[in-house]
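User: Sequence in, structure out. Go.
Assistant: Echoing your sequence, followed by the structure tokens.
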Amino acid sequence: QVQLVESGGGLVQPGGSLRVSCTAAGTVFSTYGMGWYRQAPEKQRELVAEITVTGNKIYADSAKGRFTISRDNVKKTVYLQMNSLKPEDTAVYYCTLENVHGLGYSKRYWGQGTQVTVSS
């Protein structure tokens, strides 16, 4: 029903910047949230940043002050601007979209992920 395509990942040096983007296609409802999770090797997937269905921007503590999430409602695209990158930011970054179907019900979709590697 919803397909998410991420782009912008790659290799960056510590202290550098990178912007990843995710574009949604398919049936995206009028009320939706979009955000980013990440998963490092041998670790669980964790929230990085998200614009929730209520419009709030939330960040992981590790991302606050360095990362900025934004959304383009016309393009159905979410961006994550990552500055001052650290080696511990290395992970596969997954885009997510939460479609609100009705009162008290929503469905979450996931992209395939894009690799972000921070290394010198």
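User: And one key feature?
Assistant: The chain has a mean pLDDT of 95.
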